[in-house]
TrEMBL record:
<dbReference type="GO" id="GO:0004135">
    <property type="term" value="F:amylo-alpha-1,6-glucosidase activity"/>
</dbReference>
<feature type="domain" description="Glycogen debranching enzyme C-terminal">
    <location>
        <begin position="279"/>
        <end position="642"/>
    </location>
</feature>
<feature type="domain" description="Glycogen debranching enzyme bacterial and archaeal type N-terminal">
    <location>
        <begin position="20"/>
        <end position="224"/>
    </location>
</feature>
<dbReference type="InterPro" id="IPR012341">
    <property type="entry name" value="6hp_glycosidase-like_sf"/>
</dbReference>
<dbReference type="Pfam" id="PF06202">
    <property type="entry name" value="GDE_C"/>
</dbReference>
<dbReference type="Pfam" id="PF12439">
    <property type="entry name" value="GDE_N"/>
</dbReference>
<dbReference type="InterPro" id="IPR008928">
    <property type="entry name" value="6-hairpin_glycosidase_sf"/>
</dbReference>
<dbReference type="InterPro" id="IPR010401">
    <property type="entry name" value="AGL/Gdb1"/>
</dbReference>
<dbReference type="InterPro" id="IPR024742">
    <property type="entry name" value="Glycogen_debranch_N"/>
</dbReference>
<dbReference type="GO" id="GO:0005980">
    <property type="term" value="P:glycogen catabolic process"/>
</dbReference>
<protein>
    <submittedName>
        <fullName>Glycogen debranching enzyme, putative</fullName>
    </submittedName>
</protein>
<dbReference type="InterPro" id="IPR032790">
    <property type="entry name" value="GDE_C"/>
</dbReference>
<dbReference type="GO" id="GO:0004134">
    <property type="term" value="F:4-alpha-glucanotransferase activity"/>
</dbReference>
Length: 647
């Protein structure tokens, strides 16, 4: 894997250290997460964040474990870092942090206090909501280490304040149970029980959200380092509170061995692929509801079917996880209703509210069979997949239907809905409703029909009708989508901007957006790529970290994905950069024989800049294209891994 490590110039600078985040997933949708500097900048940060029935229903438990070293002189040196509502940063342990690194994907800190060097490693037990924090004396005389357990128990999207009841603490052997929800265990436990008031989260402040909470100082653990190599460790876990986890040092060793196996199984071609393989592993989870699922992004997203299917090839087929992928595809197929794939949303409700998620599912199944030769799965799913086509021909929810006039797929839309991946809304109003016939939706429709015809013929069945539907839609696509501007229309046959839904027909939207890339990039793409067109698209949309969602010279362009929720959602698809779109762009360029050798340089450097070892959800549309959104995003990682591996 690539070397991800930082010395005192970054570690000792709070601005640099607090904007680089690490993630250790538990394989169930929970995690440990924080910043290089140790400062909790988000309400989502914590050492034990526990998933509920779904990954989206997470709760924060152990917020931090603040270390203090008692020197032979009697001086106490605090190694934690907190920011308060007053603006003060205290303690300032980051100033003593001489090195931070990810080692086999696990974070390791090293603090120096003169000749005393203390190291911390952290891991989660694979498949369990259990975190192990191991401290080791690297060098120096005997010293005492104290560890303050700072806790809460709340929804990860919210806050808890001291004006409510204090967390309930029950003493148990070696520690305490907090709120009957999670357990702390370690050496020489001393209960305390007091509120720490006004903890500030600077990233939440920047996002225009509530940025303060109160934390509960539950108590402290303590141990003594007699000689270099001695360890002092703490465990925290949820669910089975009467279960005793393995020793903390064993948890770290187990996690490290597992991460190495994950990388080795994928047979990466280079260090970048190895890093992306381990990054991809974070998103593949097993939950109480699903044998295999995909977390769309950390720290705030759960499972979304569109994200899952776009990510499928990169997360599963490029990482030697086809068996797990098979489970996932079968599980999602069981959710089909009226020809639509369930969009398992963060709301906790099963919803059917995408026009493209089901089409991405067709693509994922076709790619699975093409790569693995798993015709048994194709045979099993064929009736359901044919049902998708039949439902779209007849018409399904939200006015989604095949237009009998040309064989293309249209979405009639209803007020307040946004059914494509550009689905942001501000105060309930879609920013980009894209009513009509979106270009990527119809590219996926053409691709899906061809892929399903191929699967049908593999099963020894007649695919004549599918071939006719495919040819009709492909012909219509080629006639309707090329625009006089030199690129493709983003939407055709939509309502005129001055009319409500259902108003004047046949308005064609020629804004320069990246959705058209799918018309050239998919395996059964409706168009052959044209070098001149791709160069026009690149000139307006390509950035070092991905493709803009709208060209800068367009009305409504937003170059900064910053500010409060309304401002951010308003710019989400109006110029914000999306790294996942590098996948379709690279595929289209390769088909056109355009070189993409230099496309990856900046995005590979990005692996050390924001979500360490991973790829962000979004970035600003204007230079320097600062990363935004989730620091760890499934489709960003998956598409980068996929298009690098298929060179």
């Amino acid at each position: 894997m690539i070397d991800i490590g930082f010395g005192p110039q970054v570690c000792g600078d709070l601005t640099g250290g607090a904007t680089r985040e690490w993630l250790v997933p538990d394989g169930r949708g929970g995690y440990a997460m924080g910043t290089l500097s140790g400062l909790r900048t988000r309400r989502y940060h914590g050492l034990l964040v526990v998933a509920g029935e779904t990954p989206a229903t997470r709760r924060v438990g152990l917020a931090s474990l603040d270390a203090s070293v008692l020197l032979p002189s009697g001086a106490r040196v605090r190694l934690g870092t907190h920011e308060w509502s007053s603006g003060e940063v205290d303690p300032r342990g980051y100033e003593l942090l001489e090195h931070f690194a990810l080692v086999d994907g696990l974070p390791r800190w090293r603090w120096r206090i003169g000749d005393v060097v203390v190291e911390r490693e952290l891991a989660m037990l694979p498949g369990q909501p259990c975190v192990a924090v191991v401290h080791r004396l690297v060098s120096g005389p005997p010293v005492r280490l104290e560890l303050a357990a700072v806790c809460t128990w709340r929804d990860a999207h919210g806050e808890r304040r001291a004006d409510g009841p204090a967390p309930r603490m029950e003493p148990v052997d070696g520690g305490a149970v907090i709120e009957g929800a999670f357990r702390l265990a370690g050496p020489d436990w001393t209960p305390e029980g007091q509120w720490w008031l006004g903890v500030h989260h600077r990233e939440e402040a920047a996002r225009g959200l509530t940025c303060e909470e109160d934390l509960w100082y539950a108590g402290r653990f303590a141990g003594r380092f007699e000689r270099p190599g001695d360890t002092v460790s703490v465990l925290a876990w949820a669910d089975q509170l009467d279960w005793q986890p393995p020793p903390a040092t064993e948890v770290v060793a187990t996690a490290r061995r597992r991460n190495r196996r994950v990388v080795s199984a994928a047979r990466p071609a280079d260090a970048v692929e190895a890093t992306l393989t381990l990054a991809a592993d974070a998103f593949v989870v097993r939950t109480d509801r699903a044998p295999v699922d995909v977390v769309a992004g950390y720290p705030w997203f759960g499972a979304w079917s569109r994200d899952t299917m776009i990510s499928y090839e990169g997360l599963f087929l490029c990482t030697d996880r086809a068996t797990e992928g098979r489970e996932l595809l079968r599980s999602y197929a069981a959710t089909l209703s009226e020809g639509m794939l369930a969009n398992t949303a963060d709301t906790g409700r099963v919803e059917y509210n995408t026009v493209d998620g089901t089409l991405w599912f067709l693509h994922a199944v076709a790619r699975h069979v093409a790569v693995t030769g798993d015709t048994d799965l194709a045979d099993e799913l064929l009736p359901a997949l044919r049902g998708v086509v039949d439902a779209h021909l007849a018409g399904t929810r939200y006015g989604i239907a095949v237009d009998p006039a040309d064989g293309l797929l249209t979405q009639g839309g209803t007020p307040g809905t946004a059914l494509t991946w550009m689905d942001a809304r501000v105060y309930g109003v879609p920013v980009t409703p894209r009513t009509g016939k979106p270009v990527e939706v119809n590219a996926l429709w053409v691709n899906g029909l061809a892929g399903l015809a191929e699967l049908t013929e593999l099963a020894g069945q007649d695919a004549g009708e599918l071939r006719r539907l495919h040819e009709r839609a492909r012909t219509a696509f080629r006639e309707r989508f090329p625009a006089p501007t030199g690129w493709l229309y983003d939407v055709v046959d939509g309502p005129a901007p001055t009319y409500p839904l259902g108003g004047a027909p046949h308005h064609d939207d020629d804004l320069l957006r990246p959705n058209q890339l799918l018309a050239w990039s998919l395996p059964y793409a409706p168009l052959e790529p044209d070098e001149a067109t791709l160069r026009r698209v690149a000139a307006g949309l390509l950035t070092p970290l991905g493709l803009r969602s709208l060209s800068p010279d367009s009305t409504g362009f937003s170059g900064r994905h910053r500010g409060g929720p309304a401002e951010r959602d308003g710019g989400y698809h109006q110029g914000t950069v999306w790294p996942w779109l590098l996948g379709p762009y690279v595929d289209a360029c390769r088909r056109s024989k355009l070189s993409v050798d230099e496309v990856f340089m900046a995005i590979e450097a990005h692996l050390t800049e924001y979500g360490l070892g991973s790829v962000s959800e979004t970035a600003d549309g204007l230079p320097p294209h600062g990363a935004t959104g989730c620091p760890f995003q499934a489709w960003s990682v998956a598409e980068l891994l996929r298009c690098r591996r298929t060179r």
